[in-house]
Amino acid sequence: MDKIDFVPLSGIYEDEIIDLMNNREVGQYLPLLVGEFTAESCLDFLKAKKQLWDDHGYGPWAILIHGKFAGWGGVQPEQGEADFGLVLHPKYWGWGRKIFNKIKDQAFNDMGFKSIIILLPPNRPNINAVKRFGFLEDGQLTINDQNFLRFRLNKS
Known about the structure:
This protein is α+β, with helices and mostly antiparallel strands.
């Protein structure tokens, strides 16, 4: 049986988050992450993610698979939209669809969103994977001088 749990990021050891964010395979998909992710970076990251929860009532979770920290993700506000993000350790990359389905269910059914977006860097290989999840191309967005392709999934 697949055991996926969402817990607050504050419940994860900072070293585990630092290790994830400094993983080379993970870093190649995070254009907003520049340089080494340090203990100070981690504290700033955790503070910013908690602020999303405080200000908007939602944000990313730590994701546990069979009780082990696998990464973080969920829906977080981005320029007035509900943005789906998922950062997994490479050993859990095969879990993306199952995690996405749980988050999509929360976003549309529990949280009441009519649509969610996903932002991907233009150089991301296999962009068509998000289209298989039902996302449609929906323009571009620039965040901190980085361009992203925006894809949208409407509640069916």
